[in-house]
């Protein structure tokens, strides 16, 4: 029995993904060697700090915001809507979470916690709404508007943390620590694994896979992604679909920010996202490397979350700068884009062969 065309493309995609990661790490070897360090030792400590059994909980924690953000990005990317604003939506979700947690610090946790989580997602969705309307109604390029909204969000958060919501005790640009009763519940004692990790991997991933692959909504996104004209011929309300997809993407990014505050930071800080590997931008690489498939995105999130986590161990044990993880991720993004180009060429050749047959 021969290999079907669909399975053949899956194998090609797997080979391209592995090649992408391999090329990025090979380039990393050259960079590490050029500064007089041992790349094998550096990578040993990188993977030891990322995927050894004691490191797995922290890797899952790092992977969770990447997973939520990248699944939201996959939703819009399927329709060829380029939301580059997940970083801003992530920060807005985190800021809204901190403010609401302070306001509801004396409320019953069983009521306050789900409300705060929901509002965190809504904060991210509302931040994505203006670019969505501009794109859907006026055709304004969403890459520009969402990118600009990132800076607006980060500077707005900076103003709030330096002004009305600055911690009155430490006077650092951060909010006061939220009530421990409102912290995300720990699911594995002795670790920092919180309920947000469980929600992301056990609930969001299967739901996203189902909705993107097996529902009319997912089909409409695919049709719009293939051709806006085809979507119009299919009587799809493109304006509504663009706004819906952007709201979902923003909601998941805001939710990621909310769980980062409730589960890890327990206050809002300017460094909510790692400076060397910002979650909102790294999520783009995760979504593309996972080929917009939630199951593959989950694996990719775990892998890149491990790279972020392991970079600390690599820095401590091999004296390699933490920013090396950011360089590897940037190289992965570059090679991912190149792999998409290669895949497109292979797809065109395959279609030409089918026409000849």
UniProtKB/TrEMBL annotation:
Q: Which residues cross the membrane?
A: 12-35, 88-105, 111-129, 141-161, 193-212, 241-264, 284-308, 320-342
Q: What is its main location?
A: membrane
Q: Which UniProt keywords apply?
A: Cell membrane, Membrane, Transmembrane, Transmembrane helix
What is the membrane topology listed in the Swiss-Prot or TrEMBL record? Multi-pass membrane protein
The Gene Ontology CC terms held by the record are: plasma membrane
| Coiled-coil ranges per UniProt | none
* Highest taxon in the source lineage: Archaea
The answer to whether the entry has keyword Transcription is no
What Gene Ontology molecular function terms does this protein carry? transmembrane transporter activity
Q: Where in the cell is it found?
A: Cell membrane
Name under which the protein is recorded? ABC transporter permease
Which organism is the protein's source? Answer: Candidatus Terraquivivens tikiterensis
């Amino acid at each position: 029995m021969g290999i079907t065309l669909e399975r053949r493309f899956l194998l090609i995609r797997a080979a391209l993904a592995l090649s992408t990661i391999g090329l990025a790490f090979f380039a990393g070897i050259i960079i590490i060697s050029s500064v007089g360090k041992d790349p094998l030792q550096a990578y040993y400590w990188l993977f030891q700090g990322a995927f050894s059994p004691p490191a797995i909980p922290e890797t899952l924690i790092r992977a969770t915001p990447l997973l939520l953000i990248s699944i939201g990005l996959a939703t819009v990317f399927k329709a060829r809507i380029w939301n580059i604003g997940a970083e801003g939506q992530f920060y807005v979700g985190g800021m809204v979470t901190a403010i609401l947690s302070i306001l509801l610090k004396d409320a019953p946790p069983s009521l306050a916690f789900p409300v705060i989580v929901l509002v965190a997602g809504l904060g991210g969705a509302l931040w994505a709404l203006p670019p969505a309307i501009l794109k859907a109604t006026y055709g304004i390029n969403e890459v520009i508007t969402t990118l600009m909204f990132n800076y607006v969000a980060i500077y707005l958060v900076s103003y709030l943390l330096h002004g009305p919501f600055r911690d009155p005790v430490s006077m650092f640009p951060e909010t006061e620590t939220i009530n421990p009763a409102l912290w995300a519940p720990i699911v594995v004692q002795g670790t920092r694994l919180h309920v947000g990790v469980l929600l992301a991997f056990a609930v969001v991933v299967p739901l996203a896979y189902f909705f993107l692959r097996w529902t009319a909504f997912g089909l409409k996104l695919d049709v719009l992604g293939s051709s806006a004209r085809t979507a119009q011929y299919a009587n799809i309300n493109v304006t509504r679909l663009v706004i819906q997809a952007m709201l979902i993407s923003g909601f998941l990014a805001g939710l990621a920010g909310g769980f980062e505050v409730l589960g890890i930071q327990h206050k809002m800080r300017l460094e909510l996202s790692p400076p060397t590997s910002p979650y909102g931008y790294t999520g783009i690489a995760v979504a593309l490397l996972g080929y917009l498939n939630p199951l593959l995105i989950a694996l990719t999130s775990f892998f890149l979350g491990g790279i972020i986590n392991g970079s600390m161990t690599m820095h401590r044990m091999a004296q390699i700068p933490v920013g090396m993880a950011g360089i590897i991720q940037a190289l992965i993004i570059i090679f991912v884009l190149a792999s998409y180009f290669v895949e497109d060429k292979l797809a065109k050749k395959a279609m030409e062969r089918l026409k000849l047959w």
